[in-house]
Write a structure and sequence with these properties.
Layout lengths: L11 E3 L2 H10 L7 E5 L5 E8 L5 E10 L7 E5 L4 H13 L4 E6 L10 H15 L6 E2 L3 E2 H7 L5 E5 L8 H6 L8 E5 L7 H8 L4 E4 L8 H16 L2
Parallel strand pairs: 5-6, 5-10, 6-7, 6-8, 9-10, 9-11
Antiparallel strand pairs: 1-4, 2-3, 3-4
Helix pairs in contact: 2-3, 2-7
The chain binds S-adenosylmethionine (SAM).
Length: 236
Amino acid sequence: LFVDAPLQAGARVALDRGQANYLLNVLRLRDGEAVLVFNGRDGEWRAEVSVEGRKAADLVCRERTREQGPASAIVYAFAPLKHARLDYMVQKAVEMGAGVLQPILTRRTQASRVNLERMRSNVIEAAEQCGILSIPEVREELSLERFLKDLDPEHLVVFCDEDAPVSNPVQALAKLGNNQAGLVVIVGPEGGFTDQERALVAAHERCVCVSLGPRILRADTAAVAALAIVQSVLGD
Ligand code: SAM
């Protein structure tokens, strides 16, 4: 369970109504029973439920069960999709190891505005579900141009392009070795990138354009495929 409070031995964490309801009525935990909590900074802790009334509960931290490891540095840059598809893509990106979620606005991006709060709560839910202890960062949307302009030239951009010659992406990436100063995976919108956008990305100093196979994948499928390959070849 994610709690936004400092975690240390003996610390008492007040739960909000939703969290108390989840522990007391969904998990049906009783006073003194334990749950594992994390806050994205202090590792994972075993904490005991301290019932404070019919609908209220606190948690009391007892001992750390996992150290806080390094967060993933993989930046997943993507053209935001609409509502449920975006929720799904954000969850899969977290499960597949993205450490930063960077919405990029391209000419054919469907969603003009991005609900960052909704994305952040999806990220937390995905982190709880897949058992990571860090909370991937959700950044403000940027135009593709702005994003590339601000990007460290040392960062390697893995550009997923369905028009790239079909080749084995694992081999294409394995040649690079994993001494990446920083790693960015870019997936485009349902309508694809324009040729100008392709040229913009290709102009980045360190850019490898990969095909994810001969079939055209939906953007959320491409997210899973691309991050799985990148993690397996270049992951930390
Ligand atoms: N241009 C595509 C079409 O003709 O339908 C639409 C783009 S596709 C739905 C969304 C994004 O997923 C693309 O911009 C690309 O980043 C990625 N993608 C989809 N299939 C891919 C493939 N076979 N290889 C590499 N990237 C792919």
